[in-house]
Specification:
Length: 153
């Protein structure tokens, strides 16, 4: 699990107190500066464009979207337990079963990160799980992306 510099957003060793890029003392930074750093870590994505690209590419863009959402959630939650590529592979290998767990876990990661960065994000993990169980994963993806976009503001 890695952490990021609150000043420049550069990845730091997990036990480092000073950034090797800018020399910033990460132990003395306020939450507002940390929020500024997290907004540089992830990219805001247009949800409508993602849906259109998913339709036009017959679902191929959805696979990419799945991977980048997972990686963005890992960055904001500082939890690198499963990368986006590994999550996609596990979902394919298990014929979609891991995808149900992924939806639930994404809700928990985003909620916990929202608590850490003082963002008003509800715990939607059960909602994401239920949507994916009933075949509405694309709606779940849109809601997840919407929550992730709050971190890039």
């Amino acid at each position: 699990m890695s952490k990021f510099c609150p000043k420049c957003g550069e990845e730091m060793e997990k036990d480092a107190n000073f950034c090797s890029n800018c020399g910033n003392d990460s132990t003395k930074e306020s939450k507002s500066k940390t929020n500024a750093a997290v907004s540089t870590m992830i990219q805001k994505r247009d949800i409508v464009l993602a849906i259109v690209l998913s339709i036009v590419t017959c679902g191929i863009y959805t696979l990419y979207w799945f991977v980048v959402m997972t990686d963005d959630a890992n960055k904001i939650s500082e939890d690198d337990s499963t990368s986006g590529g590994v999550s996609l592979l596990l979902t394919i290998i298990t014929c979609g079963i891991y995808g149900f767990y992924w939806n639930y876990k994404m809700g928990k990661k985003i909620y916990d990160a929202g608590q850490n960065y003082n963002k008003n994000i509800p715990d939607n993990s059960i909602l994401y799980l239920i949507l994916s169980l009933f075949g509405f994963s694309i709606i779940s993806y849109c809601l997840i992306q919407s929550d992730l976009n709050k971190f890039s503001e």
